[in-house]
Each structure stands twice: as C-alpha cells, then as structure tokens.
Automatic annotation (TrEMBL):
This is Probable RNA 2'-phosphotransferase. The lineage of its organism: Bacteria, Pseudomonadati, Verrucomicrobiota, Opitutia, Puniceicoccales. It comes from Pelagicoccus enzymogenes. It comes from the Bacteria. Keywords: NAD, Transferase. It holds the Pfam family PTS_2-RNA.
Amino acid sequence: MRKELKPKSKFLSLVLRHKPAAAGVTLDENGWCQVHDLLRGAESAGVSISLPELEEIVATNEKKRFSLCGDGIKIRANQGHSIELELGLTEKEPPEELFHGTTIRFDEPIMENGLMKMKRHHVHLSSDIETAKSVGMRHGKVLILRVDSESMGKDGYKFYLSENGVWLVDHVPIKYLKKMNLR
C-alpha cells in the first residue's frame, strides 16, 4: 500500500471495526455500510478518501482487512471488530497447528488464562509462523505460541476462517498452547 494511504486505512479500521460514529455511519448486522456514506462521513471527519483510493486500500492492504461486496456499493472489515456484529462466518476444520503472535509482556497472563478474545469477537490465529511473528512485532519483543488446533477441534472447539485467511476461535485454553523458541 502506498505510504500516503496508511492513515486513511487506519481511519477505515477505526470506523469499520470499532467506532462507526467517527464517520457518522451505521453498520448493518453483518458489518457492512454504504461506500458513499463512508466516503461522505470520512470527509466530514476531516479524512478525505476518494473512491479510487478506497478501492486501492481494499486491494493492497497487506492483511486484507476490508472487503467490498460484489457490486462495490458496500464495504466492511473482515474481522477484528470490538462492536457486536454477526459476520456470517462458517465453521471450518482447522489445520493441525496454528500460531499466535504477541509480545512477551503478555506471557504471564496468557500462561495463566490461555488466549482470550478480550474486547474482540475472537482470538486471531495465523496458519504460519511468519505472519504470527509480524503481528507480534507490532507490540514489542515477540512471543509466538503454537496452538494445537487439531486437538482443540477434536475437543469440540469451533474454528472459523475469515475472508482474509485469519483463523478465529473464542478462546484457547493453556493446555493447547506451547511457547516457541525463535532463535
């Protein structure tokens, strides 16, 4: 993504994941809002985003945070919401292992309580170590956790795969976690 679009992308994340009122928009029960309402609301909030810029942000966002509907008149964030929505996720059998990247400052609470969704709808997991590592690096010294997702699935935990390839689950108990050595 072009450097000048990053602040606009961050604003879109704020609006579509956490605070629709920041752009004066309303999300439907599945998290969608009208593109023209979003662009008008962003402009009113002092963030000018053209339609071509919005389309470029959706297409080039490394984490594929956003989706446009088939006809391009609605947009939503794919996951990571702190507001109550029904994202219409379909349960999917997870691979044998998944990974979670965080920072070492959360080591102790995680080893006491497991991975919790906190203010989000789900715990976010990656299918590869490199993605988990890049997520963890945003917050300080990296802690990578291996998740025994195969055993979790066998034990009845439900997994979902978002449109952008992020695995989602409600909680990961400690017994399914193993710290990884990143040497």
